[in-house]
Amino acid sequence: MIHVAVLGYGTVGSGVVEVIETNKTDINKKSGAELNVKYILDLRDFPGDPYENKVVHDFNIILEDPEVSIICETMGGNEPAYTFSKKALMAGKSVCTSNKELVANHGPELLQIARENNCNYLFEASVGGGIPIIRPLNYSLTAEKIDAITGILNGTTNYILTKMDKEGADFEDVLKEAQEKGYAERNPEADVEGYDACRKIAILSSLMTGKNVKFEDIYTEGITKITAADFLYAKKMNRSVKLLAMSKETEDGFFAMVAPFMIPTEHPLYSVNDVFNAVFVHGNMLGDSMYYGRGAGKLPTASAVVSDVVDCARHQGKTIMCFWDAENVSLMDVADTKRRFFVRVSADKKEAAIAAFASIAEVNAGFADEFAFVTDVMSEKEFNDKIASIGGAINRIRVEA
Ligand code: HSE
Fold first, then answer.
1. Across residues 27-56, what is the average pLDDT?
2. 2-129+298-314 has which fold?
């Protein structure tokens, strides 16, 4: 029997217990041993819960129990998750986590501690919820040199943008409705400002390069400035607006960013709607591949955590290889990255805009007081200089081919 402890009995933690119980016959078979949830750590008590007798409030009970060999860290946040994970790994107990913040902050260090103690630090659930993406990058695509990853990595913002697209609604109204329905957090900043997607693309970029991509270095822009009018223009261009998290190896260097992009109907990520996530990976031999599914939610995320538990059970006493060194990757300055831009300026700036940008494609969505256009490919710096020279824009959105 393999004894498991779950840290944090919230949405994902209770999902982990439910997945292990619901699919126990299959999971035990695939693990090669019976899994038993021995402890659940939480500050709260859960009277009436079928697992109430497993709830403990002191992490040391778990740490000091030699029977516990696998720990699911579903607490979220940095502390005490970091201290608990570190102590568990140092004691030779494997840790499976859904905590993207902790993985993005301390991934290489925790992986190193796992290696030194012949156990595992696995984090399939930290990116894309239930979508298998960490394992494909670590195991399945090992023959590839991966040169680009583009993802829709945040369910909340994808839900909001999908609603804005389909219903012509404005950002604030959709956000309010999403909060009322419980799809968006009361404090939605981490999602709508792109911070959540930033941590996730930092993790994927680190696995892509085998080195450490610091989330603090990734240029991040959220969706709060996207309006219903932007979607009207996007429709005229046969496009939609999606919050993309991307990293690319280019001739000029490696860059990573999170920002809203206008993408065409034929783009593989165009049809990824509502709370779904998708990760589009380009390898130099395979070409394109895409991973799609539920990027958040109790059972999808818990399923990914439990898949890591099964992996740990199969590799007791052995560390599964994961290439993510502590050496930091130096990222290109976003100002030097190049692309086209969709721009809206007030109608009185039309002549100045044409003079500044020279080659443009006008877009008309029926707003008499505006002039809108798509630029040629140029660096962000060049774009910013030109737009500043005409006194700024109403809005601008990057355009993805
Ligand atoms: N808030 C996240 C989302 C949850 O909306 O995708 C999963 O990390």
1. 98
2. Rossmann fold (3.40.50)
